[in-house]
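_Full entry_
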Amino acid sequence: MKRKDSTNILERVSSKELTKMCGILVSVLYDLNLINYKELQVKWHTVNELLDRFRGLVRLCTIQYPELSFKSLEHDKNEGRKVYDGDFVVGFYTIKGPVSFYFKKKYLKEFNHLPFSETAPLISVNPTISHEERIQKIRTFRMMAANNYSKEMIIDEINNSIYLDGSQKPKNRNLIEITEEKLNDICKENAKPKVLEEDLTQQLSDILNALTKRKIIDSKDLCMVWHPSKDYFNFILELMALFTVSFPELAFASYKHYDEKNDSISNFNGDFITGLYTPEGPISLHFKNTEATKFNHLNWIENAPMYDNYDHTEVMNRLNSLAITLSSKKSKEDILKSINTNIYLHESHKTNPQYQKN
């Protein structure tokens, strides 16, 4: 019997379809408890790393705008869906209505600066709100801040905006008290079933990366159980732009690395670098040049600050140090004085007044 020739499958199935198939495979293996999807690494970051950085930026933004933020253990009764088991809801109010995100309850204490709402606001009468709609809501928030609206003006505008779908406004929040003892109990991580095949996650990562390298699938469209990685990148981009509008003095942007000879950005063709200065050192992110205009409010420098070999754990430590500093009762001026940004600058910048931030 003659074997069927399957070599032309790539001619018959598009990259988009193959990417979707791989996403279904990831979901099936996760449901069978054969992989830990959050440890899957496609290209630069694992799902866990993207989620951590995303959560860190949500935390910074809610510290900056606590009056326009919320957290709750429950959805509005008219939402038509329940909060995922083991998760809580946190989010923002915008002139287009609220936008919310889910995080594991073990991270609740990172949001101690926010009071508990009895329920999260009604996000939409349509339970299938799209990723694009959520991004648009964050973008309207950022545009208000970028257009020199004061914090008081933004709060007033959002409180008086008309939500056509009946979503709840920040001034109508019903707050509740939760004791420290109960909070500690809530934060306990639920026991998880043990992954049956410990090494299968890494093997699957290797396969997905090989398919990405050969351009058979598009890693940014690969759905990791709930969201493709590009969704997290979009959230991180918009939240980074939103936060840096409020604290441009603690941010930077550049088209070049600190050391172009030994640390070439050629690994990130078509990208620019933006980042934050924290009490423990800088962190940086790469985004496509097409997104650079979202950071026009920053002081662009010729070379990004020096990369001091920090890993993901150190990134989260530095984000945490910045969150703690911003949560203190210090004035903005005192916060800026407490973070010495000049020590991270390129040598050629240290003597140039244009780049002196402190």
Observations:
- The first helix runs from residue 9 to 12.
